[in-house]
Amino acid sequence: MSSDLGEGKGSTTALEVDMERQLEHWRENPTWTDQPPIIKVSVPKGSLCNLNVKVNVGLPPDAVYNIVTDPDNRRVFKNIKEVLSRRVLIDEGHRQVVEVEQAALWKFLWWSGVMLVHVLVDQDRRDHSMKFKQVKTGFMKRFEGCWVIEPLFVDEKLCFPFQPKTCEDYHSCTRGKGRIASTVSLEQLIQPAIVPPPPISWYLRGITARTTEMLIHDLLAEAARIRGSFDPGKSLEVHQESKDLHQIDQISDIKERWAFRRRLAKQYLKRFFDEPSQ
């Protein structure tokens, strides 16, 4: 889901300055290893599935929030085929409520398709949250969830033996040099008007988990691009990367897919550092 941002000018300037300072720390030290997301799927009575996802992202919360709420984030999230409409209903500076309708791509094993998503998005920069809820009921009785982005103190060891509890504590004990990453949580409930029996329900849960996994992968890829982990001038061989992604799609087990991604990331990093400087 994406939506428009409308902030108060003064507060935006302060946030941008702080975020730019953090991004500079990340450019100076882009060392970061992406880990696979923790995805838990439960089946509450009468619903198709309740999805809980948690993943660490190597960018500060404001930067991640900007990616998730960017009206043009279709360029980041490949499962967004088209944004059909977007309307800002409430704009209170830090908080906006936006009505969004978009066409989303899904893929599971050898099946793929497009589904329409029409939701209200309530986003608040103060706690870096984004709640979404289906506008009209139809085939889907309930489709709702929430993104929450929390700070993660990457260089906390610099504070030893002190354990910072707040960003202010962390900034103080690292002398303003500590990098801040994000812990991103997503909770999503899907309840069709009629819950299909197995094995159809199993396939639908698989589609939901796979689509969410693709979303997280795209978020991590965009975070790596912003950090400057790779020199854009040194091509990562787009054609080879495309082939690698195709290989990933053929792996059905989530743990195997992410293990394969980690191996590829190590290969890319080795290739990057082994290349002689110009």
From TrEMBL:
Pfam families: DUF220 (PF02713). InterPro entries: DUF220 (IPR003863), START-like_dom_sf (IPR023393). Residues 112-182 form the DUF220 domain. It comes from the Eukaryota. This is DUF220 domain-containing protein. It comes from Citrus clementina (Clementine).
